[in-house]
Design brief:
about 160 residues, alpha+beta, 7 strands, about 30% helix
């Protein structure tokens, strides 16, 4: 399995029509506890720091998907480093419904609106084919975690 960074050209990325009942919005800092609880319960403690950082930016660089007022997924950018997409995830019971793609595209459009021409999708593992198929992302030669911004982690 590949594990490394991928690059996506933001020119031409468009938002996707939302699945029925799904809303996507920029996260509100007042929801920080609720969002962090969702992240930790569904994806573990590893993404807490990056998500917290994204929530504390002004404006926040975290988006959430909701269904009936409940968090269904999240996506961040500029958390690990400038111009990096991620972390991101969708509730395992809601995967395959287009929520992840809608979040991805919304965040990539936000990045383009901020002036980025390309985005780096950080430390991609088993989602490589999803990013290739969805936004034509390409892996970066030499972009393995030990050669990326993640080398600065205390323990990889």
């Amino acid at each position: 399995m590949y594990s490394g960074d991928m690059l996506v050209n933001l020119i031409g990325i468009e938002e996707k029509e939302l699945p029925e009942g799904v809303k996507i919005k920029r996260a509100f800092p007042g929801d920080m506890t609720r969002i962090l609880d969702f992240v930790c319960e569904n994806f573990g403690e590893g993404w807490r720091g990056e998500t917290t950082y994204a929530l504390m930016q002004q404006p926040p660089t975290c988006y959430i998907a909701t269904i009936d007022g409940k968090i269904a997924g999240f996506a961040c950018y500029d958390a690990s480093a400038k111009d990096f997409f991620g972390p991101t995830g969708v509730d395992k019971n809601l995967r395959g419904k287009g929520i992840g793609e809608a979040l991805l595209r919304r965040v990539l459009v936000a990045m383009r609106e901020e002036g980025y021409a390309y985005a780096i999708i950080g430390w991609v593992g088993d989602a490589k084919e999803f990013y290739e198929k969805t936004v034509d992302a390409k892996y970066i030669d030499g972009g393995e975690p030990q050669n990326s911004v993640y080398r600065n982690m205390v323990k990889m």
